Predict the 3D structure of the following.
Amino acid sequence: MNYRIETKEAFDVFGIETICSLTGEEGYLSASQLWGQSHRNGEYERLLSNSGKLPDYIAQDLCKIHGVENYRKTEENTYPYMLCAFCSKDSKTEGYQVAHIPAQTYAIFPSEPFSWDEDFNKILARLQKRFYTEWLPTAEYERAEGADFEIYGGTSESGYIELWYPVVKK
């Protein structure tokens, strides 16, 4: 299984936040609905223009906008989700939710390259399933509290996703 373990120093992200329901309760946006809404209403483009340069600790071939969840506590049966950019010296964070991500070790699972026409939700679901059912049960690590990331990269022809899960040694 293709994965790597990396320890990241503390950093900040900022972006467009929603609170998602774990139970499907009405009145909450899902992560995919937030992405769609943000593309339709121009908020994605505004966040992209305010993101600034990628900081040095992030691979420079990545997209500037990513997804992060579970970076703070919310009410029972809910979790926070944010379309986010990594804070850098030239980021314009005013008017956005800002989240501090403490130093953490991550198990990072990259996807195979895919066509941008493919269904992101299926690709995400496959990676999530592999983490929880194939890797985690036999790993020297266990799932830790902390932020999960969907990191996006690629070219105009194809993309890839990395899922970053916080872990600690058993």
Q: What stands out?
A: Residues 117 and 158 are 9 Å apart (CA to CA).
